[in-house]
Amino acid sequence: MTMKKDFSKKLLITGGAGFIGTNFVRHRLTHHPDERIVVLDALTYAGNLAGIEPFFSNNNFRFVHGNILDDTLLMVLLREEQIDTIVHFAAESHVDRAIHEPDAFIETNVIGTHTLLKAAKSVWLDSDFKASHRFHHISTDEVYGSLGPTDPPFSEKTPYAPNSPYSAAKAASDHLVRAYCHTYGLQVTMSNCSNNYGPYQFPEKLIPLTIVNILENREIPVYGEGLNIRDWLYVEDHCRAIELILNMGEVGEVYNIGGNNEWRNIDIVKRICRITDDKFRKDKSLSFRFPDAPPGRGIKAESLITFVKDRPGHDARYAIDPGKSKRELGYSPVESFDTGIVRTIEWMLDNELWWRSVMDGTYRKWIDLQYKNR
Ligand code: NAD
Ligand code: DAU
Questions:
Q1: Residue 137 sits in a domain of what CATH number?
Q2: How far, in Å, from the CA of 341 to the mean position of ligand 2?
Q3: Is the pLDDT of residue 181 over 60?
Q4: Mind giving me the DSSP string for 262-292?
């Protein structure tokens, strides 16, 4: 194929059709029109092209439907596109699925990441690749385990203690990335991030699930007593942090990225309910568009909250110590939760077609089965 030679960077973004990947690709293409962006995504149930399809006509963008387990494809892509930067998002990402069907998590998160590392090593280190390179691995705060109510937040020095098959698989991939840097000199950086929320998040995760269930008049399942705590980060802030790491991060270093925004699950669900009630009160057209939604019929959305059996091994609390990323990258989140959660609800109200289309029969059957078994 013919290629432009003057791109400032040539990025391979794995998992670029998933939630955070989509937001990152959109951010990158908007702010760096001088870069080549190649997205590699297997389009699992969690991946869809809606958010990146508008860029298909850009000369600097290419989407490849493929799997990170396919070593031949990886080598061809890295060589053909002269990739110098990999941003690795592709993963199985949902804890509940990992509890019921862990195999895919080991395959993609561990073996897939290792396949990608091997391909990067082969092309960047074992052949005559001259330019500098970077492998940025996206990981999670869940690898550090669970905090008690008064424990200090996770820092980059917190020992790993993953509790679920998902976080164990992510931890394994982190160790492999670190080892490829230490042993072979692969130029890696890593970020361990807290819970993201925002546009394009698949409605199996707490925030979009709560919004969709209100609009569809379904119970809002709150695990246990709803007292578990997460540190929520607006997805655009995560994208900004990754960008800072690519620009300023030191090779071999890990950066924890958080939102300074700890919430108990029950409080976040109640907050979404109240905001949605308010939206329906102020905009009567919503009652016509979502006739099943309780607030359109004068009933509070909170009436849908249902306490269900707890997630096995449910981590009590995650929180991020933002010190290092603030000191070394100048990073802090800019979106407040007040504005971020309203933006997210408004995005879901405006993008009904998107969430209906991703919630196909397979997904709905799977999630219904989980609640029946609780
Ligand atoms: P997601 O589930 O929304 O998207 C994952 C994407 O990876 C999908 O597009 C899917 O099709 C693709 N994919 C899955 N297996 C693949 C394979 N074998 N080959 C190629 N593509 C494959 O996930 P997300 O929430 O966007 O998370 C992205 C990354 O960020 C993951 O590594 C996750 O562990 C990490 N992370 C997520 C959060 C969060 O709150 N969502 C927080 C911290 C870290
Ligand atoms: O901390 C980062 C992690 O955040 C990422 O690594 C994961 O990929 C991402 O899925 C997320 O993991 P969580 O398990 O924290 O996210 P989830 O949205 O599934 O759940 C958030 C909290 O809400 C958690 O305490 C479980 C609870 N919950 C979740 C669902 C889906 C409920 O009470 N009811 C629900 O229906």
A1: 3.40.50.720
A2: 16
A3: yes
A4: EEEHHHHHHHHHHHHHHHHHH-THHHHHSTT
Domain range for 175 is 10-198+233-260+314-334+361-371
68 to 16, 93, 126, 282, 337: CA distances (angstroms): 12, 15, 20, 47, 34
* Closest ligand relative to 74 C-alpha: 1
The rounded Å distance from CA 44 to ligand 1 centre is: 10
Neighbours of 101 (CB within 10 A): 12
Calpha distance 42→312 (Å, rounded): 29
Kindly state whether residue 130 falls inside one of the protein's structural domains. yes
pLDDT digits (tens, 9 = 90+) for 339-370: 999 999 999 999 999 999 898 766 666 666 66
Cα–Cα distance measured from residue 320 to residue 125, given in angstroms and rounded to the nearest whole number = 34
- Does the annotation count 141 as an active-site position? yes
Which residue of the set 81, 84, 142, 231 is catalytic?
Answer: 142
Q: Which residues does residue 305 pair with via DSSP β-bridges, in sequence order?
A: 220
Which residue's C-alpha comes closest to atom 36 of ligand 2? 221
Within a domain: 25: yes
Determine the residue type at 158.
Answer: T
Give the up-direction half-sphere exposure of residue 22: CA atoms within 13 A in the CB hemisphere: 20
- Quote the CA–CA distance of 277 and 262 in Å, as a whole number: 23
Ligand 1 pocket mutation pick from 93, 105, 197 by most atoms within 8 angstroms of CB: 93
In a domain, 167, yes or no: yes
Residue 2 pLDDT: 45
Q: Which of 14, 19, 97 to mutate to test the pocket of ligand 1 (most atoms within 8 A of CB)?
A: 19
Residue 142 is among the residues annotated as catalytic for this protein: yes
For 128-168, the pLDDT digits (tens) are 898 899 999 999 999 999 999 999 999 999 999 999 999 99
